[in-house]
Amino acid sequence: LQAKNLKVNFTYGFDDFDPMDGFPTYLPEEFRKYMGQPLCDIPSPDPSSANFGQYYAKEFIDTFNALDIEPNIIWGSQLYRSGKYNESITIALNNAAQIRTIYDRISGGKRAEDWYPLSVVCESCHKIGTTRVYNWDGKVVSYKCEPNLVKWAVGCDHDGQVSPYDGASKLPYKVEWAAKWYIYNEDFETAGKDHMTKNGSFDVAAAIAKEVYKTEPPIGRQFPYEWLLIGGTKMSSSKGIGASAHEAAQL
Question: Is 233 helix (H, G, I), strand (E, B) or coil?
Fold first, then answer.
């Protein structure tokens, strides 16, 4: 598009506010205690980077820069903590019942009547992957850090209330995807073919974008990424199967 002198902005996002939900085979065992915490809050394996998320992102940035790919980089942690998502969080909480209906209608993902589309950073153990929001009064959310909410991390059983803004909470990824489209008004975005299957993640996010955020999803549904297979198996960085982006770029 740039070669055709069209005005275009290429943005690449790192979801470093996501919880650590997989334990790579190459990590020291001492990192297991951070499972469930935001990637941006976990120490870097190397002192050259500020945190765990930035350490691995830097390697990826260096790789695509070497291929003359230089997108505008955005960081999930900075977007949340700067308040960029505040309005989107309010809209999602105020329309929680409608979002529950969309999940059920499109993907068959039934949610409990007290389920809210948000995860809070626990004030006690600082994990974001183990908290369940069960109430919203227009100012604060009530949440529980549940020991058995997920299989990959253990919550501390803390029960609390907190304002959901400025990095205190995070939207689930299908709602967050729609919120990004609402905030950035994107024209084109694609994803792996698993997300683009009928009634998959993209379809759920697209419905939330249209019905909750009142915005049109970007073009991209027709152009899913294919998988690279190693011995007939999908590559998995957390399981150590396949090649890194750096190795692929060298090849």
Answer: strand
DSSP assignment letter at 138: S
Task: Please give the torsion angle defined by the CA atoms of residues 226, 23, 148 and 127, in that order, rounded to the nearest 10 degrees.
Answer: -100
Residues 6 or more apart in contact with residue 250 via CB below 8 angstroms: none
What pTM was computed for the model? 0.93
CB 233 within 8 A of CB 241: yes
Structure tokens at 207: 């419905």
Tokens of 196: 């683009």
Q: CA-to-CA distance for 194 and 185, rounded, in angstroms?
A: 24
**DSSP state for residue 66 in the 8-state scheme:** H
Burial of 195 (0-12, 13-18, 19+ CB in 10 A): buried
pLDDT tens for 43-88 read 999 988 999 999 989 989 999 999 999 999 999 999 999 999 999 9
Contact 220, 188 (CB under 8 A): yes
Q: Are 127 and 155 spatial neighbours (Cβ–Cβ below 8 Å)?
A: yes
Amino acid at the residue 75: W
For residues 130 and 155, is the Cβ–Cβ distance under 8 A?
Answer: yes
**Sign of torsion over alpha carbons 48, 49, 55, 59:** negative
- Report CA dihedral (91, 97, 99, 100) to the nearest 10 degrees: 150
